[in-house]
Amino acid sequence: MKISLYAIEKISPFIVGGLKGKEIVNFFNNYRIRDVYDESGLPDIGKKSGHRPSKTEYV
Predict the structure, then answer these.
(1) Could you give the angle at the alpha carbon of 43 between the alpha carbons of 3 and 26, nearest 5°?
(2) What DSSP string runs through 3-59?
(3) Is residue 28 within 8 Å of residue 19, measured between CB atoms?
(4) Cβ pair 58, 45 in contact under 8 A
(5) Which residues have CB under 8 Å from 16's CB, separation 6+?
(6) Which residue has the higher pLDDT, 29 or 3?
(7) C-alpha distance from residue 43 to each of 10, 46, 56 (Å)
(8) Residue 11 and residue 40: Cα distance in Å, rounded?
(9) Phi, psi of 19 (to 5 degrees)
(10) pLDDT confidence of residue 1
(11) Which of 2, 8, 23, 36 minimizes the number of CB atoms within 10 Å of its CB?
(12) How confident is the model at residue 7, as a pLDDT?
C-alpha cells in the first residue's frame, strides 16, 4: 500500500506513541512487511552507524 508523505507524517505519531517496538513490527508485518524484532530490538534499516533505528526512524 502506498500512502503520501503527508499521511505518513500525520499517522506516525500515533503508531510511535501508542505501540512498543515489537508491536510496531507486528503491525507492519500485517501489511506484508516481513521484519523480525529480535534481542537487538527493531530491525536493521541500514543506518551508516550500524545502530538499530529508533521507533520514529523505523516507522
Answers:
(1) 60
(2) --HHHHHHHHHHHHHHS-HHHHHHHHHTTT-----BTTBSPP---TT-PPPPHHHH-
(3) no
(4) yes
(5) 24, 55, 56, 59
(6) 29
(7) 23, 9, 13
(8) 26
(9) -130, 150
(10) 62
(11) 2
(12) 93
Q: How buried is 42 (Cβ within 10 angstroms: 0-12 exposed, 13-18 middle, 19+ buried)?
A: buried
- Ramachandran angles phi, psi of 3, nearest 5°: -130, 160
Rounded Cα gap, residues 5 and 38, in angstroms: 28
Determine the length of the chain: 59
Three-state DSSP at 34 gives: coil
Dist. CA 32–CA 39, nearest whole Å? 22
Question: Which residue is listed with cell 507524517?
Answer: 9
Domain residue limits, the chain: 5-58
Say whether pTM exceeds 0.90. Answer: no
Judged against a pLDDT cut of 90, whether residue 13 lies above it is answered with yes
